[in-house]
Specification:
This is Spore photoproduct lyase family protein. The protein is α/β, with parallel strands linked by helices and 358 residues long. It has helices spanning 20-24, 26-34, 64-68, 123-137, 161-164, 170-178, 215-221, 228-240, 258-272, 275-280, 292-301, 303-309, 331-348; strands spanning 15-18, 39-42, 69-73, 81-82, 89-90, 95-96, 101-102, 117-120, 151-154, 184-190, 206-212, 222-223, 244-252, 282-287, 289-291, 315-319, 325-329, 353-357. Helix 4 (123-137) packs parallel to helix 6 (170-178), helix 9 (258-272) packs parallel to helix 13 and helix 11 packs antiparallel against helix 12. The structure holds iron/sulfur cluster.
């Protein structure tokens, strides 16, 4: 099966599948105006697009479809879910899907073969829902690993907010909303440096978590993302612009020589990051999990990545709550690797507080 790995612009949108109400909304119109050359195809539901989802032919176009297709939908169910790891709460999504193409990404696990960005256009309702949720929580009663004083809301569980900001103002609207809520804080992980976000004036109420892994792994696995050294180099600018800057050390992929390359990465962070970034930084560590269906899809477009990701000798099966056949590193190997990585942090980046590791 041919694999098209030539560099391509992040967006070259040719087709926009849109629910009529989403296309007619102010946010929908903003997206349509940004891509005036795109063909608009009306759909009943952003979840049911047979031409797009579950079409095995799309495996060959896995990365290309992310730049050429967008979906506009109205998010029907609005709820903030408790989390307790990356954040106290997972905010209702403002988008689902991503134009980047990390080979291990869990977002497409629920969407069949193609995973372009669906923009949820009812951002005003999403913000209003969050405002009510924040108000009902009141003050945070006690510090936890998410934050000492603020309720933290992850606004990018199924998307990359820095990439979404290239398409429309959903990310900007969320950052602006959170700066008015002194008891809460937005948070999102990203693998894309979008300097437009520097102008949003978050006033400390948005935490950006730059995802990092050794550059050698990222070059193979983080397809279409900003190179790791550029993500590190951007951290100081984001802090100066009013963001809290944390790091998402993930996924940790076990392979020959992983300790050496993580040590080098931590050493590079220690060298490159300004003292002010180090003073407020924290990190989460997430060991790789993978999934049989995604493994089979990846074999169709990026088999080299699977040599690193699919390691049955090191991994064990775990059927998740929704029935997905996931795999994770076996418990003993995982615990030993986490202890080793914590040791490397103590040695090369002792200023980096680990919020949690799993
Ligand atoms: S940046 Fe995040 S959401 Fe986008 S493909 Fe990578 S892991 Fe998935």
């Amino acid at each position: 099966m041919p694999t098209d790995r030539r560099p391509m612009p992040l967006f070259h949108v040719r087709e926009i599948f849109a629910e009529p109400a989403a296309a007619a909304s102010p946010r929908g119109r903003q997206v349509l105006e940004r891509f005036p050359g795109a063909r608009v195809v009306e759909v009943d539901s952003h979840w049911r697009i047979p031409h797009l989802h579950g079409n095995a032919g799309n495996v060959e176009r896995w990365a290309r479809i992310k730049s050429e297709v967008l979906v506009l939908g109205v998010k029907k169910t609005l709820a903030a879910r408790p989390n307790g790891r990356s954040a106290d709460w997972i905010a209702p999504s403002s988008a689902n899907g991503c134009a980047l193409a990390c080979a291990y990404c869990y977002v497409p696990r629920r969407k069949g073969y193609a995973n372009p960005i669906t923009v949820f256009t009812n951002i005003d309702r999403i913000v209003a829902h969050l405002a009510g949720h924040v108000r009902r929580q009141g003050r945070k009663p006690a510090p936890n690993q998410c934050d000492p004083t603020a309720w933290v809301y992850d606004i990018g569980e199924n998307n990359d907010c820095s990439v979404d900001a290239l398409i429309c103002d959903n990310t900007a609207d969320l950052v602006r909303a959170f700066r008015g809520w002194p008891t809460a804080k937005a948070s999102f992980a990203t693998k894309w440096v979008n300097r437009d976000l520097l102008a949003l004036d978050p006033r400390g109420r948005t935490r950006i978590r730059f995802s990092l892994m050794p550059p050698a792994d990222a070059r193979l696995l983080d397809v279409r993302t900003t190179p790791v050294p550029e993500r590190i180099a951007a951290a100081g600018d984001f802090l100066d612009a009013g963001y809290e800057v944390h790091f998402n050390l993930s996924p940790v992929v076990l392979r020959a020589g992983w300790q050496r390359d993580w040590a080098e990465l931590l050493h590079r962070m220690d060298d490159m990051l300004p003292a002010a970034v180090k003073a407020q930084a924290a990190a989460e560590i997430i060991m790789l999990t993978h999934n049989r269906e995604l493994h089979e899809v990846n074999l169709g477009w990026h088999p080299k990545a699977e040599e690193l990701l699919w390691r049955p000798a090191l991994q064990e099966a775990k059927t998740s709550g929704n029935g997905a056949r996931n795999v994770r590193y076996r418990a003993a190997g995982k615990a030993a690797a986490l202890a080793e990585l914590r040791g490397l942090i103590d040695r090369y980046a002792p200023w980096l507080r680990v919020r949690y590791a799993f």
